[in-house]
Task: structure prediction
Amino acid sequence: QLQASGGGLVQAGGSLRLSCTGSGRTFRSYTMAWFRQAPGKEREFVAAIFRSSGNTFYTDSVKGRFTISRDIAKNAAYLQMNSLEPEDTAVYYCAADARIILSSIRRPLYDYWGQGTQVTVSS
Result:
């Protein structure tokens, strides 16, 4: 019910915009998030936009470079990634949850997950 897209190969310093489109239900009242998983590493939180306030949250390593947003009318969320670094290379997953509490948004406890899209940043 979540479809992630927009990944690809980019040189360091470049930009990509990931999209997460929902189907089968409306995600307007859901907290939307992006996680990533590099080979041999655990899935880690990247960014989230909280359902009620629209407040955004980021892991420290992407602050100032990545921006999460949503388009309720299109039932979609986005992750604009600028100034990409080789360390950003990973499979990126979008996630959604209607009830997750603020203190848990950085944990991979979301009910709905997209299939992942590969982002590769070359040096």
Summary: The radius of gyration is 13 Å. DSSP finds no helices and eleven strands in the chain.
